[in-house]
C-alpha cells in the first residue's frame, strides 16, 4: 500500500475516535443551554453543588483519562435537553467508564489539511464522507436517536468494511437502538478485525447480557479483561449475574484517591444487585442525602428485578428493546478463508502380484468306530410365567443444596402471605425450583417493609447456574449473599396443614 494511503487510513481512524468525543461536547453544550447549571434535584449522581454526573450510557460516560479533546461528557439526551421525566428516571442511574472510548485515541488533532495526504481527489472525497458519517453517527448516539445512528453507521461500514473502529461504532448504534442481536454481531465483527478493540468488547458483553446469555457475557469479559478498565468490567459483570465479583472490581476505583461520585454510585448499585442493601445504602449516602437517597433506593429496588433479560441493559442505555430485523447481509464481515493444504500427487503404487502358494493338505484321519450314547428320556421344559412388574411410586427426596452463603432471590413482597402465594405459583411454573425449600427474610428499605423470597444455601457457581435456568424459563431472579434468610414458616415440617 502506498505510504500516502497508509497515513490517510491512520488519520481516518484517529478522526473517528476524536469525532466520537467531540460529539459529546456538542451534546453537553446543548444540555447546558436547555437546563443551565444543574439545579438541585436534577443531578441524580450527587447532591447540589457537585459536578454534573457522567451519562447513563456505559460508553459515553467520559470519566476516562486522555487529552483535552477527549474529556467531554455526553449528558444530552436530545438537542432540546433532558425531558422532565427522563431527567428523573435516567440521570446517572449508573454509568460505565469511557476507557473503551479513550484507549488508543491519543492527543492527535485533525484538521482540514489532513486530507491533503490522500493521493488523489477521489480518495479525499471518500475520506471527507467518512468523517461526516462518523460525526453524524456520534451525535445521534449522544442525543439517543438510535435509528438515525444506525443509518449513519451502516453507511459508514459500507464505505470502510475492514475498519474495526467503524464496526465498533455500528455495534454501539445498534445497542442504542435496542437491537441487541445485531449489536452482538457487529461487536463480534469488530473484535475479529481487532481483538484489542475495548469499546466492542464491552458492547459485546452488554448485548449478550441483554439477550440473556450471562455465561457468554462473563466469558467475553474474562477474555478481554486486559483491554477493559476494571470498573467497566465490574459493572458489566454485575449485570451479567456476578454482582459481588463486579463490586470487587469497581471498589478498586471507587475507594482510590481518584474515586468519583459515579464510581461510588456504580459500586452501590453492584452491591444492591447482590442484595447487600445496607452496604449499598451506606456507599450511596456518601454523595446523596435525604429524599434523593430514598428515591435512589426505590429506583434500584425496581431495577434489580427486571421483567425481561434485556430490561436492565435497555435502562442502562436509556432505550427499549425492539424487534431486530438483523444486520444487512451487505455488511457481513468477509473473513479471508484459510488456504486448504494441497495434497502432493504421488505415483500410483504398483498393483500387488498374486503368487500361487500351495495349500497344505491335512493328513486323512482314520475313521473312528461308531458308538451310541446311553438312552436318556427327553424332558420338555415348560416356559416359566413371567410376573408383570408393577410401577411403585417412589418417594422423591427434596434436593439438598450444598451448604453455602449465596441465595437466589425470587422477589420482594408485601408480607409472608403474599410471598407464599408467589412461591406456590413459581414452584408450579419453573422446573428448576422442584425439590427446593423456600426461604425468606423481612427487610426495611426507606419507609417500607418487604418480605424477600429466596432459595439458597448454595455456593456461588450453583446459585448463578440456578438463576440462569430460571431466567431461561422466563423467571426473574438475582444472586446475593445470605442476609438473614431463614426457612419460610409455611415450609417448615409440621406447619403445612396450619398454613392451608
UniProtKB/TrEMBL annotation:
Its transmembrane ranges are: none
The superkingdom listed in its UniProt entry is Bacteria
Mind telling me which InterPro entries this protein's record contains?
SPOR-like_dom (IPR007730), SPOR-like_sf (IPR036680), TPR-like_helical_dom_sf (IPR011990)
What the entry lists under Gene3D superfamilies is as follows:
Sporulation related repeat, Tetratricopeptide repeat domain
One example of the protein's molecular function in GO is: peptidoglycan binding
Q: Which Pfam families match?
A: SPOR, TPR_19
Start and end residues of each SPOR domain? 403-480
Put simply, this protein is called SPOR domain-containing protein
Classification from the root reads: Bacteria, Pseudomonadati, Pseudomonadota, Alphaproteobacteria, Sphingomonadales
Amino acid at each position: 500500500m502506498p505510504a500516502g494511503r497508509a497515513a490517510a487510513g491512520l488519520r481516518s481512524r484517529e478522526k473517528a475516535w476524536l469525532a466520537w468525543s467531540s460529539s459529546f461536547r456538542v451534546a453537553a453544550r446543548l444540555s447546558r443551554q436547555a437546563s443551565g447549571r444543574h439545579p438541585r434535584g436534577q443531578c441524580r449522581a450527587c447532591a447540589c453543588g457537585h459536578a454534573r454526573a457522567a451519562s447513563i450510557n456505559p460508553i459515553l460516560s467520559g470519566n476516562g483519562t486522555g487529552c483535552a479533546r477527549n474529556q467531554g461528557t455526553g449528558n444530552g439526551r436530545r438537542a432540546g435537553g433532558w425531558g422532565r421525566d427522563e431527567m428523573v428516571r435516567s440521570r446517572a442511574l449508573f454509568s460505565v467508564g469511557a476507557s473503551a472510548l479513550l484507549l488508543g485515541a491519543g492527543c492527535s488533532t485533525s484538521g482540514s489539511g489532513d486530507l491533503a495526504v490522500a493521493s488523489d481527489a477521489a480518495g479525499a472525497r471518500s475520506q471527507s464522507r467518512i468523517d461526516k458519517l462518523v460525526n453524524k453517527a456520534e451525535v445521534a448516539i449522544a442525543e439517543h436517536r438510535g435509528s438515525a445512528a444506525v443509518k449513519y453507521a451502516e453507511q459508514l461500514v459500507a464505505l470502510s468494511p475492514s475498519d474495526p473502529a467503524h464496526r465498533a461504532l455500528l455495534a454501539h448504534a445498534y445497542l442504542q437502538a435496542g437491537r441487541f442481536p445485531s449489536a452482538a454481531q457487529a461487536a463480534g465483527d469488530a473484535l475479529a478485525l481487532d481483538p484489542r478493540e475495548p469499546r466492542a468488547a464491552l458492547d459485546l458483553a452488554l448485548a449478550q447480557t441483554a439477550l440473556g446469555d450471562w455465561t457468554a457475557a462473563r466469558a467475553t469479559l474474562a477474555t478481554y479483561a486486559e483491554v477493559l478498565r476494571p470498573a467497566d468490567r465490574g459493572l458489566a459483570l454485575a449485570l451479567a449475574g456476578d454482582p459481588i465479583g463486579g463490586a470487587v472490581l469497581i471498589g478498586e476505583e471507587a475507594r482510590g484517591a481518584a474515586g468519583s461520585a459515579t464510581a461510588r454510585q456504580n459500586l452501590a448499585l453492584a452491591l444492591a444487585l447482590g442484595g447487600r442493601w445496607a452496604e449499598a445504602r451506606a456507599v450511596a449516602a456518601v454523595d446523596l442525602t435525604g429524599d434523593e437517597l430514598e428515591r435512589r433506593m426505590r429506583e434500584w429496588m425496581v431495577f434489580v428485578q427486571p421483567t425481561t433479560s434485556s430490561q436492565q441493559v435497555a435502562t442502562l442505555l436509556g432505550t427499549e428493546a425492539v424487534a431486530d430485523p438483523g444486520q444487512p447481509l451487505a455488511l457481513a464481515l468477509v473473513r479471508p478463508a484459510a488456504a486448504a493444504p494441497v495434497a502432493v500427487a504421488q505415483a500410483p503404487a504398483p498393483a500387488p502380484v498374486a503368487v500361487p502358494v500351495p495349500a497344505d493338505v491335512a493328513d486323512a484321519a482314520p475313521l473312528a468306530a461308531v458308538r451310541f450314547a446311553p438312552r436318556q428320556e427327553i424332558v420338555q421344559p415348560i416356559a416359566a410365567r413371567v410376573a408383570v412388574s408393577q410401577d411403585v411410586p417412589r418417594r422423591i427426596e427434596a434436593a439438598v443444596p450444598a451448604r453455602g452463603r449465596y441465595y437466589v432471590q425470587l422477589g420482594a413482597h408485601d408480607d409472608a402471605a403474599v410471598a407464599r402465594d408467589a412461591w406456590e405459583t413459581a414452584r408450579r411454573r419453573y422446573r428448576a425450583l422442584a425439590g427446593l425449600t423456600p426461604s425468606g427474610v423481612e427487610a426495611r428499605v426507606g419507609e417500607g417493609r418487604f418480605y424477600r423470597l429466596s432459595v439458597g444455601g448454595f455456593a456461588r457457581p450453583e446459585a448463578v447456574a440456578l438463576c440462569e435456568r430460571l431466567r431461561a424459563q422466563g423467571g426473574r431472579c438475582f444472586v446475593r449473599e445470605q442476609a438473614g434468610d431463614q426457612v419460610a414458616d409455611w415450609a417448615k415440617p409440621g406447619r403445612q396443614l396450619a398454613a392451608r
